[in-house]
Amino acid sequence: MKNRIQFNDAGYLVEVVTDGGAHLERLARHDWFLRCERADGTALAIWFTGRITMTKEQESMGNKEDE
Asked: CA 62, CA 33: separation in Å to the nearest integer?
C-alpha cells in the first residue's frame, strides 16, 4: 500500500492508507470502514459510525525497541 491521505472539496477527511497496513475510508456522511493488516497477512476489519473531529500528522518517535 502507498501512504496517502485524501480530503474532499469541503476539507473533510475521506480516506487514509498507510504502508503499515491500515486503511480508513469514509463510506457515507458518518459511516466508516477501518481495516488493519497484520504481518502474517490476516486483518481486522471494523465498520463504525462517528465523526472525525481532528486530524494531525506526527513525526516518528523512533523505534521504541531500541531504548
From this structure: 28
DSSP type of residue 19: T
d(CA 18, CA 2): 6
pLDDT at residue 63 is higher than 90: no
pTM: 0.80
Q: Please report the beta strands in the chain, taking only residues with DSSP state E, as ranges in sequence order.
A: 4-7, 13-17, 22-26, 31-37, 43-49
Closest CA to 35 of 57, 25, 26, 27: 25
Distance CA 43, CA 12 (A): 26
